[in-house]
Please model this.
Amino acid sequence: MTNLTVFLVSVVLVTVAPGPDIIYVLTRGVSQGKRAGLAAAAGFSTGCIFHTALAAVGISALIRSSETAFTVIRLAGGAYLIYLGIGALRSRGGSPVGEAAEAPPLWSIYRQSIVANILNPKVTLFFLAFLPQFVVAGAGSVGLQLMGLGLIFMTVTILVFGTVALFAGFIGDWLRRTPTVAGRIRALAGLTFIALGIRVALPDVR
Model:
């Protein structure tokens, strides 16, 4: 129980820390409404399953050992976010004041969020480094323990990101009541996605 408590506290702290995922959810909520933000939150939470599975079977270790593989995936993830940002910029016009900017279907936002999460190898390596620290020797299959920890991480993520999405949606509703602000929200969202894509694509400074 002590180990699990430490894990839960750590997960909450990691989840609320500013990063590409939570900023993406925040931006979706502000620019397209709370339902879009919740769809993005659900997508990033679902992506946790993928990264947990990779950590459990050791594939993430192979990604870490291959600089080429890591670079290719990192660049693909950055390019995908930049692509989403350009799409947002191109469709930013024509949103009535007081309504959320025209958004893709919720299923599309959910799917895009999963892809964006999967194509970020830094998340995979984080799971590889983070989850094994809370595996208890002699407490059963290591793989099953990792999957259980990953599901807990996923649950905390959807709760934290969902809360952020709701508040972002309320903030967006308030901002869109101002005509001069309403016309710029989508452009800001697009620029934010592009900035996140660049951040993901750039190598870490060591």
The radius of gyration is 18 Å. Residues 57 and 196 are 29 Å apart (CA to CA). The chain has a mean pLDDT of 77.
